[in-house]
Design a protein that fits this description.
heterodimer, A: about 350 residues, alpha+beta, Uridine Diphospho-n-acetylenolpyruvylglucosamine Reductase, domain 2, Enolase-like, domain 1, 12 strands, B: about 180 residues, Ubiquitin-like (UB roll), 2 domains, 5-stranded mixed beta sheet, 5 helices, about 30% helix
Chain lengths: ~350, ~180
């Protein structure tokens, strides 16, 4: 592993001061992605600022019905929290669909948002990668691209965001609270992660001198009609080829509101209000679900090894909408897809 | 913890080695005081500083689970955490599971069910299973398989591993 200095932050303000003082410093929380990347010399911070002792571990039920989740709440604690299980089961399910229990015990809520892509070439410092070294070129476009994006990619980068949790947070319209030298600001989840465009080295709109302090979930959790359906190469502990988070507000055989987000297909969780709008006021029928999937995937573009993902995503969307409408969400232990 | 400025070397940046840092770990009930480099993982601290080589280094990237230990009662991949970050933590390794010479129910069940072949993944499997039982989330064999998916067995002893965990889980429940 690379060599570096190690310091601890004593408060959020101290963390912000320390990150500004050393241009090549990085925060460390769970470490599950950063330590791995440092072993491969993909990340080479000169100093690590340990934020794990900061008081950002609470889950607060707010008076307006929203829930504020501290950035350092471990993924496991979040997935099994009674309020999450009851009011936001889609989020609980998505978290449990990702990684392994050991990793979920370590990984933080904020860190989950900031994990880097698992593109093979990003990890392999012997190959060109625009995300790792801007301007070097993309090895995946003409290389092995089975895991890569079918939506929102650019000539510079076709990497995907690997998180499951973030797909549910996108569907739930979470807000990300961040603190920096000029105070706190809230970033709508849809604006937190970026598409690669010409600057794939920048994953998010978090500024270098800012720290994620909390995630806020709005009151609506779609607990009656939801699912998180994840399709992958093995049944557990693998990144998604395609995943779908769905939340429906259904009454009297009519969809009042639909939330639909895809994982494993783009540089960020993929949501499209136009696709969701096709379902509003409609019956939960296979025909309407297919139309929504067609709209969601209308700009999909495959590469030599991942074109199969377009049809896979289309079918997964229909299946997930059906699961949510029927009130039979995908189990994350019994892997049979019904 | 001082770092020199960039040296005039064409090879790259020359840095002095940051000073070692003190770390106190309660390992298998015994307080251990170590001096480690910032980049020493908990796994390397256990194996190389404390000679507790029961915890295995498999992939060293959090993909295989061979390095699983319990930190403050929760199972984690010791290869992906820095020893300095665990200052003050209680760490339980495979060496700490038996009590007074009596094997832990999981250790006994792994022997009875022949739940290994080469044995390299076994310490991680058993520590992971101890964490799983403490979590209390797995009731069915499907749930055991899912929540043990972070531990890979290249010999493919999975059916016996699940049977051993089910037996130990029953025994520990009956006793408590």
């Amino acid at each position: 592993m690379i060599n570096f200095e190690y310091v601890r932050a004593s408060s959020v303000a101290d963390a912000i001061r320390q990150i500004a003082a050393e241009p090549r410093a990085k925060f460390i929380a769970g470490g599950t992605n950063l330590v791995d990347l440092m072993k491969d010399e993909v990340e080479r911070p000169t100093r690590l600022i340990d934020i794990t002792r900061l008081p950002l571990k609470a889950i607060e039920d707010k008076a307006d019905g929203s829930l504020r989740i501290g950035a350092l709440v471990p993924n496991t604690d979040l997935a099994y929290h009674p309020l999450i299980e009851r009011r936001y089961p889609m989020l609980s399910s998505a978290i449990l669909a990702g990684a392994s229990q050991q990793l979920r015990n370590m990984a933080s809520t904020g860190g989950n948002l900031l994990q880097r892509t698992r593109c093979y070439y990003f990890y392999d410092v012997a190959t060109p990668c625009n995300k790792r070294e801007p301007g070097a070129g993309c090895s995946a476009i003409n290389g092995l691209n089975r895991m890569h994006a079918i939506l929102g990619s650019s000539e510079a980068c076709i990497a995907t965001h690997p998180s499951d949790m973030c797909v549910a947070l996108a569907a739930l319209e979470a807000k990300v609270y961040v603190s920096g030298p000029s105070g706190e600001r809230a970033i709508p989840f849809a604006d937190f992660h970026r598409l690669p465009a010409e600057t794939p080295q920048i994953d998010t709109n978090l500024r270098r001198d800012e720290i994620v302090t909390a995630i806020e979930l709005p009151a609506r959790g779609f607990a009656d009609h939801y699912t998180y359906l994840k399709i992958r190469d093995r049944l557990s502990y693998a990144f998604a080829l395609v995943s779908v988070a769905v939340g429906l507000d259904l009454s009297g055989g009519t969809i009042n509101e639909a939330r639909l987000a895809l994982g494993g297909v783009a540089h960020k969780p993929w949501r499209d209000p136009a696709a969701e709008a096709t379902l509003h006021g409609q019956a939960p029928s296979a025909e309407n679900f297919k139309r929504a999937a067609d709209v969601l995937l209308r700009d999909a573009k495959g590469y030599p090894h991942n074109s199969f993902k377009i049809e896979l995503a289309r079918r997964a969307v229909v299946r997930a909408l059906t699961q949510a409408a029927q009130g039979t969400p995908q189990s994350q232990s019994n892997k049979k897809i019904l | 913890m001082t770092r020199t400025s960039k040296a005039a070397s064409p090879i790259g940046e020359m840095i002095t080695t940051p000073a070692k840092l003190p770390v106190a770990l309660i390992v298998n009930g015994v307080e251990m005081n170590l001096q480690v480099a910032p980049w020493t993982t908990l796994l390397d601290a256990l194996r190389d500083h404390l000679d507790l080589t029961g915890t295995k280094k498999g992939c060293d990237h959090g993909q295989c689970g061979a390095c699983t230990v319990l930190v403050d009662g929760r199972r984690i991949n010791s290869c992906l955490t820095l020893a300095v970050m665990q200052d003050g933590a209680r760490v339980t390794t495979i060496e700490g599971l038996a009590t007074n010479g009596v094997l832990h129910p999981l250790q006994q069940a792994f022997i009875e069910h022949d739940a290994f072949q080469c044995g390299y993944c076994t310490p991680g499997q058993i520590c992971s299973a101890a964490g799983l039982i403490a979590e209390g989330k797995a009731k069915t064999s499907d749930e055991i398989r899912e929540l043990m998916s972070g531990n890979i067995c290249r010999c493919g002893a999975y059916p016996h591993i699940v049977a051993a965990i089910e037996q130990a889980m029953r025994e520990m429940r009956d006793k408590s």
